[in-house]
Amino acid sequence: MDKIRMTNPIVEMDGDEMTRVLWGWIKEILIEPYVELRTEYYDLGLPERDRTDDKVTIAAAEATKKWGVAVKCATITPNAQRVEEYKLKKMWKSPNGTIRRILDGTVFRAPILAKGITPYVPGWKKPIVLARHAYGDIYNSVEDRVEKGQSAYLVICDKDGKEVRRSCIHDFTSDGIVQGVHNLDASIASFARSCFNYALEHKISVWFGAKDTISKTYDHRFKDIFNEIFNEEYKARFDELGIEFMYTLIDDIVARIVRSEGGVLWACKNYDGDVMSDMVATAYGSLGMMSSVLVSPDGKYEFEAAHGTVTRHYYRHLKGETTSTNSVATIWAWTGALAKRGELDGNTALCDFAAKLEKATIETIESGYMTGDLIPMFNREGVTPVKLDSRQFLKKIAEKL
Question: What is the reported pTM?
Answer without folding.
Answer: 0.85
